[in-house]
């Protein structure tokens, strides 16, 4: 993702001589290898589905967030500019007393320093 690579363990093993590096799959002469290739295909699909879920959830897209989501960890929604601005405006409107108090404290500190 974005030029970054990550390794994810599937807890599956195969003899290196039975692995076709050019095709990134196991030789299919053994039924167990066919099952391994099917697992690889389904896991690859799961990666693409998880990536799509992250995109739809407006979550931060990174190799770490994808790996975390694949491990079943919670996907946090990324805040957009509009939601951050609305949250800031709401906090600002509801905190006039705090603003005046902080300004008064700052003024007292500045006055006592000078």
Name the average pLDDT.
78
Number of strands: 2
The proportion of residues in beta strands is: under 5%
> What Rg is obtained from the alpha carbons, in whole angstroms?
26 Å
Distance between the termini: 55 Å
Strand order in space, largest sheet: 1-2
| Shape designation | rod-shaped
Specify the oligomeric state. single chain
Count every helix, treating DSSP H or I runs of 4 or more residues as helices. Answer: 4
In a few lines, what is going on in this structure?
The chain is built from 4 helices and 2 strands, in the order ββαααα. The chain is mainly α and 114 residues long.
Structural commentary:
The protein has 114 residues and is mainly α. The chain contains 4 helices and 2 strands, in the order ββαααα. It is 57% helix and 4% strand. A two-stranded antiparallel sheet has the order 1-2. Strand 1 (19-20) and strand 2 form a beta hairpin. Helix 1 (31-56) packs across helix 2. The longest helix is centred in the middle third of the chain and has 26 residues, at 31-56.
